[in-house]
Amino acid sequence: MNVTSETLRIADVLGLHGAVRDRLSMARNVAEGLPAESARHVHDRIGASRFYRILPEATYRRVRRLDKPLTRETSEKLYEFARVYELALRLYGGDHDRTMRFLETPHPLLGGQAALDVAVSSSAGADAVSELLHQAEAGFAA
Is the pLDDT score of 17 beyond 90? Predict the structure, then answer.
């Protein structure tokens, strides 16, 4: 897979148009703190109730009000969500509704947890969901 195109699709989910060219620039953006606009962009894309599973509403309101870069921890959560969302969206042929249904539905191969919750719990959680999606793509996961 072309790393640049995957990275650019993730950047699009985060609303980072023009700020990311490759994985290194993405890593730099996340480490330095994504702009508050990234939170708004994801919020608007997936809806408030879903977004607040990633970032608490009070935190989101504070981020919007202060309009300062997100903390590294919050940036990493948003990045992990965007990485998993982009992969699922690609596997579901660009169908946002089917993608969100997969992310919100408890899955037996994720210990009965929803992929969304596992993905934003840690980078290891996002890796577990990504692995499940890659297995599905290869025809190995139910």
Answer: no
